[in-house]
Design the sequence.
């Protein structure tokens, strides 16, 4: 992880990725190798490579237009890459039509067949494979049970709620035992409550059926909750791929840090193996060898890793003073915007209820700001050599 | 059709615009539609039902009705099948000249039917571009029931095509994509997924075609030759009998055609309602 933490853009060649990325003990279920694609002058995919292990869930996280949907559609065979390969269980399927790939796609709109009942939708994959009616019936029985839709099996999609429709869509793909499940923004059309609920349910379901899955989403909370690993996509490029905690705690780029959760970016200078921020020298937490004396760096600090105290009171790892600009109550915690003395930008600090109650603040209060944990990145745009 | 009605209030208290506009509408429709239709029925049955029945059951009248129904039926069968094919090709494949083809196919709606009949005569008639080549072999398409079907197709094809094309165009593409990823071939996808969504459009396309073809006059009179008992359709029969001064004979058939259209459109509205419901 340290080796590729500091480059602004890291090319993730599969051979580099494989050892750190997919544990060797687990079988690789699917890989994408060097996918590239252009639409006219714009390149939507730039050398995308990753593996996904048996039973693993990978989340492709990115904003709209980042190319994540194109990756999914390429794996499904609904779009052709300009170059690169798609491998499913050791079989190169790049040139195969969608119907011969055996992937299961859960579309954003669910794409249930409106004139078929729940049963007929679920049995469709077996029916077109010309399985015996008794065999189809048994599979449908098992699947409506699995997705808990037994009471709705005779209904048409239009008679079901969004969450139920989605479960039908999942069951419909599970029926023919897909090599990999692909979820295209599966919770986009649902309200916040149903969304969290379904997320848990699908996670449990996936662990039960043990089918590898790729989700695409622009919702970082969703990514953190669903993914065994997350790949952050930006401009058709994988910025970073790794376990949720690793990506959150050790973001490789400023983009990843700010996209995956909130992050404050502070400017700093390396001084003899330490980093100067404002009036303080802070010890480098890791990877210090890679920085030269005098090098300009960015500090990525999560709002929950920052501490506030009224001016004059002690605060751990204090590095600057500031003035409280805004306070927002957000339920379990409060969000405080602080204008730092040393930088033009405001920073964001979150404080848990207990913490906030112990040291109440008001807008306009002068404060001392501390920093308990942070990641140091080479400043983007500055020359590294 | 049960479209949502806006419930905005425009004035305080009693809104006089509502009863006034409804009354105006009904009053205007009276001379335009209701009264002409009513007079067919009033006149046709004024001399008693036996006279009406006798006028309807002359061999010539029965032949004209049968011919109209038969030619309209075959035109409908062709239009639905080929219209489906054309709509599929023109909505699923992108190719050079596609828009030109769509415009050309839809054009006959805008062409006067007499011009359509005339154009067919110029092509297939005994001295026509193609007819000239066929005539020496004893093949004569014009002035037969086949010519009537040909004219019907020419005039009504855009109706069936248009209805089905609209459904193809608004269909959610992810349905067909889903079917493909599940493992269905193109044909299986069409049969199990695409076609069921088109059933309503096929029925309304068929009814529109049939209703229009049964009443077709302008092109039919040119290509059929209007031979009583051989190529005379129901509308031509009405015209011929009227010219001969046999108003009762003309009126009997007119009633049947009017009732038929009424029936067809009732079914059409019923089908559309069901389509909306799904």
Sequence:
């Amino acid at each position: 992880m340290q080796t590729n933490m500091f480059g602004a853009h890291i090319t993730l060649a599969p051979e580099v990725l494989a050892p750190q990325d997919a544990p060797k003990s687990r079988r690789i279920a699917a890989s994408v190798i060097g996918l590239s694609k252009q639409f006219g002058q714009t390149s939507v995919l730039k050398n995308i490579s990753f593996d996904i292990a048996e039973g693993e869930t990978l989340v492709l996280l990115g904003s709209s237009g980042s190319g994540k949907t194109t990756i999914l559609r390429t794996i499904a065979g609904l779009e052709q890459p300009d170059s690169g390969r798609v491998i499913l269980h050791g079989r190169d399927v790049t040139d195969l039509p969608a119907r011969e790939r055996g992937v299961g796609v859960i579309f954003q709109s669910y794409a249930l067949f409106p004139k078929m009942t729940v049963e007929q939708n679920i049995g469709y994959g077996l029916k077109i494979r010309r399985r015996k009616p008794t065999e189809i019936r048994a599979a449908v029985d098992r699947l409506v049970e699995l997705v808990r839709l037994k009471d709705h099996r005779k209904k048409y999609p239009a008679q079901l709620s969004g969450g139920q429709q989605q479960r039908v869509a999942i069951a419909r793909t599970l029926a023919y035992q897909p090599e990999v499940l692909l979820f295209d923004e599966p919770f986009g059309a649902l309200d916040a409550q149903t969304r969290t609920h379904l997320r848990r349910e699908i996670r449990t379901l996936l662990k039960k059926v043990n089918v590898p899955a790729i989700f695409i989403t622009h919702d970082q909370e969703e990514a953190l909750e669903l993914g065994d690993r997350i790949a952050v996509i930006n401009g058709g490029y994988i910025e970073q791929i790794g376990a949720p905690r690793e990506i959150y705690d050790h973001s490789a780029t400023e983009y990843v840090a700010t996209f995956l959760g909130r992050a404050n970016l502070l400017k700093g200078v390396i001084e003899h193996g330490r980093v100067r921020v404002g009036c303080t020298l802070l010890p480098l937490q890791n990877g210090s060898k890679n920085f030269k004396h005098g090098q300009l760096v960015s500090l990525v600090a999560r709002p929950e890793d920052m501490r506030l105290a009224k001016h004059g009171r002690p605060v751990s790892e204090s590095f600057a003073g500031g003035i409280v600009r805004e306070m927002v109550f957000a339920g379990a915690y409060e969000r405080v915007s602080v204008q730092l003395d040393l930088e033009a930008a405001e920073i964001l600090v979150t404080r848990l209820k207990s913490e906030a109650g112990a040291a109440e603040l008001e807008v306009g209060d002068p404060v001392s700001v501390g920093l308990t944990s942070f990641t140091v990145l080479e400043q983007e745009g500055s020359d590294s050599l | 059709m049960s479209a949502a009605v806006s419930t905005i209030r425009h004035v305080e208290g009693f809104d006089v615009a509502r009863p006034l506009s409804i009354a105006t509408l009904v009053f205007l429709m009276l001379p335009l539609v209701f009264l002409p239709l009513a007079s067919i029925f009033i006149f046709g049955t004024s001399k008693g039902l036996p006279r009406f029945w006798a006028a309807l059951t002359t061999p010539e009248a029965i032949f004209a009705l049968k011919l109209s129904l038969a030619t309209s039926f075959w035109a409908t069968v062709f239009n639905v099948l080929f219209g489906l094919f054309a709509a599929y090709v023109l909505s699923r494949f992108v190719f050079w000249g596609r828009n030109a083809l769509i415009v050309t196919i839809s054009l006959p709606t805008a062409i006067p039917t007499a011009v359509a009949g005339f154009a067919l005569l110029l092509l297939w008639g005994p001295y026509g571009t193609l007819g000239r080549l066929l005539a020496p072999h004893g093949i004569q398409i014009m002035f037969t029931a086949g010519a009537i079907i040909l004219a019907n197709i020419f005039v009504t094809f855009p109706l069936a095509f248009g209805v089905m094309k609209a459904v193809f165009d608004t269909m959610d593409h992810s349905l067909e994509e889903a079917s493909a990823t599940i493992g269905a071939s193109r044909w299986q996808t069409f049969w199990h997924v695409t076609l069921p969504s088109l059933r309503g459009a096929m029925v309304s396309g068929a009814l529109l075609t049939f209703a229009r073809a049964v009443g077709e006059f302008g092109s039919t009179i040119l290509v059929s030759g209007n031979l009583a008992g051989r190529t005379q359709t129901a509308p031509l029969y009405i015209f011929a009998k009227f010219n001969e001064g046999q108003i009762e004979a003309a009126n009997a058939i007119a009633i049947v055609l009017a009732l038929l259209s009424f029936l067809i459109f009732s079914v059409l509205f019923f089908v559309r309602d069901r389509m909306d419901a799904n």
